Amino acid sequence: MINIGVLISGGGSNLQALIDNIKSGMINAQIKIVVSDHKSAFGLQRAENENIKAVFVSKKMAGDNIQFHNNILEILQHENIDLVVLAGYLSILTPLFIETYKNKIINIHPALLPAFGGNGMYGLKVHEAVLNYGAKISGATVHFVDEGTDTGAIILQESVEVLANDTPETLQKRVLSIEHKLLPLAVKYFAENKLQIIENKGNRTIVKING
C-alpha cells in the first residue's frame, strides 16, 4: 500500500473521486494528508469528513514560493509520502520539489494535452479557450509533472465531444466526469507499479502501462 499526499486549491472533487475509489477497494493506497494553499478550500473539509489529515499552508507567511514549497515538502516527507497528486492545485511547484518527487507527481488537466495547456490554462479558462478555438473535441489528461507547465509525460487521456451549444460551464461539467474516472485509474496503476517511463523515445518521454 502506498501513501498519497494530495495538493489542492479548491473544491476537491477529484480528491473525492480518489477517496471514493480507495474506499471501494479499487486503489491499494491511503491518502495520508491533504494540503491546500487556500485556507477556505472545500477540499480540506472533504478530507476532514473522511478523517484524513488536512493542512493549510500559507504562502504569505512563507514569504516566497521557494520557502512555501519547502514547507510543503517537509510535511510530505514527514508523512512518508510515495505519490503526490495535484488535484486542482494552482501554485507552481519549485525545481527542488519536482526533483525530490521525480516521476512521483501526477496532475490532472482538463484538456487533451499538449493542446490548451501551459501558463494560465486552468479552470474555466481552458474550456473558454477550447470553445473560442472552435475545437470539435476536448477531454482530460493525467500526466507526470516535470519542470515545464503541463509538459510532463502523459499517462492517460480520454476525449469528449464539444457540442455546438456548449458553454464553458457545460463543457467543464462533462470533462470533469472524465477527470473523476481517469485520475483514480492512473493512481491505481501507479500503486500497482504498472507505469513504466520510457525516456527519450524520439525526443519524447512516454509512459507504458504494463499488465
List the helices and strands and how they pair.
Elements: E1 2-8, H1 13-23, E2 29-36, H2 42-49, E3 53-56, H3 59-62, H4 65-78, E4 83-86, H5 95-100, E5 105-109, H6 124-133, E6 137-144, E7 154-161, H7 168-191, E8 195-198, E9 206-209
Parallel strand pairs: 1-2, 1-4, 2-3, 4-5
Antiparallel strand pairs: 5-6, 6-7, 8-9
Helix pairs in contact: 1-7, 6-7
Distance between the termini: 18 Å
Structure class: alpha/beta
Query: Largest sheet at a glance?
Result: 7 strands, mixed
Question: At the first level of CATH, what is the class of the largest domain?
Answer: Alpha Beta
Tally of DSSP helical segments: 7
Spatially, the strands of the biggest sheet line up as: 3-2-1-4-5-6-7
The tally of strands reads 9
CATH superfamily of the largest domain: Formyl transferase, N-terminal domain
**Average pLDDT number:** 95
Shape: globular
Helix content: 25-40%
Topology-level CATH name of the largest domain: Rossmann fold
Level-2 CATH architecture of the largest domain = 3-Layer(aba) Sandwich
Number of domains: 2
The Cα radius of gyration reads 17 Å
**Percent range for β-strand residues:** 15-25%
What distinguishing features does this structure have?
Rossmann fold; two-stranded antiparallel ribbon; about 210 residues; single chain; alpha/beta; 2 domains
Description:
The mean pLDDT is about 95. This protein has 2 domains: about 1-100, Formyl transferase, N-terminal domain (Rossmann fold, 3-Layer(aba) Sandwich); about 105-210, 3-Layer(aba) Sandwich (Rossmann fold). The protein has helices at about 15-25, 40-50, 60, 65-80, 95-100, 125-135, 170-190; strands at about 1-10, 30-35, 55, 85, 105-110, 135-145, 155-160, 195-200, 205-210. Helices cover about 35% and strands about 25% of the residues. Helix 1 packs parallel to helix 7 and helix 6 (about 125-135) packs across helix 7 (about 170-190). The longest helix is centred in the C-terminal third of the chain and has 24 residues, at about 170-190. The strands form 2 sheets. It has a 7-stranded mixed beta sheet with strand order 3-2-1-4-5-6-7, with helices on one face. A two-stranded antiparallel sheet has the order 8-9. The radius of gyration is 17 Å and the shape is globular. Strand 4 (about 85), helix 5 and strand 5 form a beta-alpha-beta unit. The chain has 7 helices and 9 strands; from the N terminus they run βαβαβααβαβαββαββ. The protein is α/β, with parallel strands linked by helices and about 210 residues long.
